[in-house]
C-alpha cells in the first residue's frame, strides 16, 4: 500500500472544492427562490441578500467551471471501445462482483458526468447572467428562466449521483479530492490504462 | 370572503382623469413632468408613480366620425397571477382575502421576473428597483371603502363591489360576457366592452407565458422529485449491491 500515485494536482483539488461549494450554495439558495422558502432566505440574511449572494456566487461558479476545462476536458473527451463495454455493463454498478473493462484516468461515467456538468453548468451560468443583467427583457428572460431551471433539474440529479459515487460507493476515491494521491495498486486496478500511460511516459 | 372587483365601462367614461388624480392623491404618488405627444393620453404610459392611466383611443369610422374610447389601464388583479407565479421572493407579491394582488417593496428583490410573468405589461419599478403597481387600494378595501378611483369616478365608469354582484348587474344591463370574467381564473378588474377587446388596447386571450406554466407544473416538481429519486436510489444501491470494494475490483 505504500507506493502512491498522484491523480489530482493541488490546483485541481482547490478548484474542485470552489466549484463544489459554490454549486451547492447556489443550489440551496436556488431552492429558496424556487419555492419561496422563508427559512432558506433567512439563513442567507434575507431574500435581498440571498439574491446578491446567489448572483455573485454565480461568478465564482462560472470562473471555476471555466478553469475545470484545463483539469478534465481532455480526459473526458477521449473515448474508445472500452467505454462502450463500460456502458454495456453499466460500469459494473449493478453487480456485486463486476468485471469492468480497463479504464483510463477517468472512467466512462466520470467522463459523461464532466461533459454534462460542462454543458448544463454553462447553460445555467449563461442563463443566470441574462436573468441577472438583462432584467425586463421579456423574451430573453423567459428563455433564460426556462433554461436555468431545466439545467437545475439536470444538475440536481447528476450532482448527488456524483457525490455518492465519489464517496461511499467507491471507497478510496474521496481521498483524491483531499490529498490528490491514491495507492498505486488501487489505481492499477481501477484506472489501468492511465497507469500504463504513466509508466510509458517515464 | 367574496372576491372584490372593479367593473370598468369605457362607454361611460368622459376622460376626465379624476381617477388618475384620486389614485395619486390617496397613494401619495408624486406628479411627473410629461410630454405632449399629440394625444389626450397623458402620461403616455404607466410609471412607478402612476398606477392607473386612462388610455385614449380614437376610432373614427364613416358612421361615427368621432368615436373616442377611454379605458382605465392598470393591474388586473388576476386570480391566476403570472407575476406571483414567477416571483422568487417570499412575500414580495401576495394575495389578500379580497382577491387583491398586492406587493411589499421591502421583500421585493428587484429581479424583475414579474415583468416576464405578467400578461398585461403592468409591473413598473421605482429608483430602487422595487416593484410598483396598482394595489387596489388594499388599505381602503380592508376598511370597507371602495378604491380611490371608484370612489371618485363621477360617471359610474369605474364601479366597485363583490365580483359576482358586479357580473350579475352587468348582465342585467346587457353585457353578456365581460372581459376578464373567465380569463386567467377570473380578473379582479372587469371590462364591459361593446367591441373587440383589441379596439380598447387589450389582448383577446391574455395568458401566462407557456414556458412559465411548464416550469411551474413540471420543472418545479421535477427539481425535488429528481433529487429525492437519486438519493433514494443511491441508498438502495448501497444496501442492495453495496460499494465497490478494492478487493472486488
Ligand atoms: C460535496 C461533495 C463532493 C464530493 C465528496 C466530491 C468528490 C469528488 C472526488 C473524490 C473526485 C475525484 C474522482 C476521481 O478523480 O476519480 C471528484 C471529481 C469531480 N468532481 Fe466532485 N465532489 C463533490 C461535489 C462536486 C460538485 C458539487 C461538483 C460540480 C458542480 C463536482 C464536480 C466534479 C468534477 C467535474 C470532477 C471531475 C471528475 C469526474 O468527472 O468525476 N463535485 N469529486
Ligand atoms: C449551479 C449553479 C446554479 C444553480 C443550481 C441555480 C439555481 C437557481 C434556481 C433554482 C433559481 C430559482 C428559480 C427561478 O426563479 O428561476 C435561480 C434563480 C436565479 N439564478 Fe441561479 N442557479 C445557478 C447559477 C446561477 C448563476 C451562475 C447565475 C448568474 C449569475 C444565476 C442567477 C440567477 C438569478 C438572477 C435568478 C433569479 C432570481 C434572482 O434574481 O436572484 N444563477 N437559480
Ligand atoms: S384602485 Fe386605487 S391604486 Fe388602483 S388605480 Fe384605483 S386609486 Fe389607484
Ligand atoms: S421584481 Fe420583486 S415582485 Fe417582481 S418578481 Fe422580482 S421579487 Fe417579485
Ligand atoms: S395584471 Fe400583471 S401584475 Fe397584475 S396581477 Fe395580473 S399578472 Fe400580476
Describe the structure.
The complex is a heterodimer of chains A (202) and B (249). With 202 residues, chain A is mostly helical. Chain A has a single domain (7-177), classed as Fumarate Reductase Cytochrome B subunit. Helices cover 70% and strands 3% of the residues of chain A. Chain A has a two-stranded antiparallel sheet. In chain A, helix 1 packs across helix 3, helix 5 (108-133) runs antiparallel to helix 6 and helix 7 crosses helix 8. The longest helix of chain A has 30 residues, at 47-76. Chain A is elongated, with a radius of gyration of 19 Å. Chain A starts with a strand and ends with a helix. The longest helix of chain B is centred in the C-terminal third of the chain and has 31 residues, at 210-240. Chain B starts with a strand and ends in a 9-residue tail after the last helix. The model of chain B has no long low-confidence stretch (mean pLDDT 94). The A-B interface holds A 31, 33-38, 41, 47-48, 50-51, 92-98, 100, 131-132, 135-136, 138, 141-143, 145-146, 149-150, 152-153, 156-157, 160-161, 164, 168-172, 185-186, 189-190 and B 86-92, 107, 109-113, 115-116, 209, 211-212, 214-215, 219-220, 222-224, 226-227, 229-231, 234, 237-238, 241-246, 248-249. Residues 22-23, 26-27, 51-52, 74, 134-137, 147-149 of chain B line the site of one iron/sulfur cluster (SF4).
Amino acid at each position: 500500500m505504500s507506493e502512491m500515485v498522484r491523480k489530482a494536482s493541488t490546483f485541481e483539488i482547490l478548484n474542485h472544492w470552489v466549484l463544489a461549494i459554490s454549486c451547492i450554495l447556489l443550489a440551496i439558495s436556488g431552492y429558496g427562490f424556487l419555492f419561496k422558502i422563508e427559512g432558506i432566505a433567512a439563513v442567507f440574511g434575507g431574500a435581498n441578500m440571498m439574491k446578491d449572494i446567489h448572483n455573485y456566487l454565480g461568478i465564482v461558479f462560472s470562473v471555476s467551471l471555466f478553469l475545470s476545462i484545463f483539469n478534465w476536458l481532455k480526459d473526458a473527451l477521449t473515448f474508445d471501445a472500452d467505454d462502450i463495454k463500460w456502458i454495456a455493463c453499466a460500469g459494473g454498478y449493478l453487480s456485486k462482483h463486476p468485471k469492468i473493462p480497463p479504464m483510463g484516468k477517468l472512467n466512462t461515467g466520470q467522463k459523461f458526468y464532466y461533459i454534462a456538468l460542462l454543458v448544463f453548468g454553462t447553460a445555467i451560468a449563461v442563463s443566470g447572467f441574462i436573468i441577472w443583467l438583462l432584467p425586463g427583457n421579456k423574451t430573453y428572460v423567459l428563455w433564460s428562466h426556462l433554461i436555468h431551471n431545466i439545467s437545475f433539474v439536470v444538475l440536481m440529479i447528476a450532482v448527488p449521483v456524483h457525490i455518492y459515487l465519489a464517496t461511499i460507493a467507491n471507497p478510496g476515491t474521496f481521498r483524491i479530492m483531499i490529498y490528490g494521491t491514491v495507492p498505486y495498486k488501487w489505481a492499477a486496478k481501477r484506472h489501468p490504462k492511465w497507469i500504463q500511460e504513466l509508466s510509458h511516459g517515464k | 370572503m367574496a372576491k372584490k372587483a372593479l367593473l370598468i365601462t369605457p362607454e361611460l367614461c368622459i376622460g376626465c382623469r379624476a381617477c388618475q388624480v384620486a389614485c395619486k392623491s390617496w397613494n401619495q404618488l408624486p406628479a411627473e413632468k410629461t410630454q405632449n405627444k399629440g394625444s389626450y393620453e397623458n402620461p403616455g404610459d404607466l410609471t412607478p408613480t402612476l398606477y392607473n392611466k386612462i388610455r385614449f383611443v380614437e376610432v373614427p369610422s364613416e358612421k361615427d366620425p368621432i368615436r373616442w374610447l377611454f379605458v382605465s389601464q392598470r393591474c388586473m388583479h388576476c386570480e391566476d397571477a403570472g407575476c406571483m407565479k414567477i416571483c422568487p421572493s417570499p412575500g414580495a407579491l401576495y394575495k389578500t382575502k379580497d382577491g387583491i394582488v398586492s406587493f411589499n417593496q421591502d421583500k421585493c428583490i428587484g429581479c424583475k421576473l414579474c415583468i416576464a410573468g405578467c400578461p398585461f405589461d403592468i409591473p413598473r419599478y421605482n429608483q430602487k428597483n422595487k416593484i410598483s403597481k396598482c394595489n387596489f387600494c388594499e388599505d381602503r378595501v380592508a376598511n370597507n371603502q371602495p378604491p380611490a378611483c371608484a370612489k371618485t369616478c363621477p360617471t359610474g365608469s369605474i364601479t366597485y363591489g363583490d365580483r359576482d354582484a358586479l357580473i350579475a348587474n352587468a348582465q342585467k344591463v346587457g353585457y353578456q360576457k365581460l372581459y376578464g370574467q373567465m380569463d386567467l381564473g377570473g380578473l379582479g378588474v372587469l371590462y364591459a366592452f361593446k367591441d373587440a377587446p383589441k379596439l380598447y388596447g387589450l389582448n383577446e386571450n391574455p395568458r401566462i407565458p407557456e414556458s412559465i406554466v411548464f416550469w411551474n407544473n413540471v420543472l418545479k416538481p421535477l427539481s425535488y422529485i429528481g433529487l429525492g429519486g437519486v438519493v433514494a436510489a443511491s441508498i438502495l444501491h448501497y444496501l442492495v449491491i453495496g460499494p465497490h470494494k478494492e478487493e472486488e475490483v
